[in-house]
Amino acid sequence: MTDRAFAVVRAGALTTVQDQGRPGYAHLGVPRSGALDSAAARLANRLVGNSAEAAVLETTLAGCAVRPRCAVTVAVVGAPCPVTVDGRPVAWGAPVRVPAGALLDVGAAVSGVRCYVAFGGGVAVDPVLASRSTDLLSGLGPPPLADGAVIPLGHAAAPHARVDTVPHPAPPRELILRVTYGPRADWFTGAALRTLTTRAYRVSSASNRIGLRTEGPALERACTDELPSEGMVLGAVQVPPDGRPVVFLADHPTTGGYPVIAVVREADLAGAAQAAPGTPVRFVPTGQR
């Protein structure tokens, strides 16, 4: 096996391979997938000299640990966390050279949820539908990392950035989600629309890559009919029978049978990727019903 690879020593709670996803296949029932905090993934790639589309690791809360078989430049961004090489602290948010055989340990997130680990040359698992992303809903792409797995790396095509650190938004203390009402806002009472945009919600611990679930007041339906399955988009705020809004994220289904009361602006979804359970959530209307 090639030495352009790394061995997984500690897979963490959930570590997946992600790039910028596979848009354009929703008509075939294939979600976009890709890094939930796409800006962080692109930044990590810039730091190590990769193109923005290169595949990275996305960790969840607990980080991960890997042992490269070759010397490689690595950058960790996203949720702030301790990073060590063979037990020695190294920089977060900056390119770091990791010798062959050394243990790179990405620790638990200090705040936020997801870290992004870029390697010079990118993670070189086989692409599926032009993307290397793991899609937890459809099962496309590589499986989540497991202890003992060996993951291939590509060859670095450009030198890494010459910086000590880079600015990056902190994980949100309060998640502000700007929404446009519709397409099924008329399935809810006027009181429900006011509740959505004036009452406090919190991020639920049941959130995942498919959707950010919320805890808070239930939204009252004006129409209780069954809704035929219809197309869903990234950022759709779907309301299941319990009345608590769910914000669809990268691995969301392409169709659904519960009404969508509003849609979140895509620019706000990176914050949703880093909002830990218990984070306050506010939905702010930006358009007219």
TrEMBL record:
SUPFAM superfamilies: Cyclophilin-like. Residues 27-289 form the Carboxyltransferase domain. InterPro entries: CT_A_B (IPR003778), Cyclophilin-like_dom_sf (IPR029000), PxpC (IPR052708). Keywords: ATP-binding, Hydrolase, Nucleotide-binding. It holds the Pfam family CT_A_B. This is Biotin-dependent carboxyltransferase family protein. It comes from Streptomyces longisporoflavus.
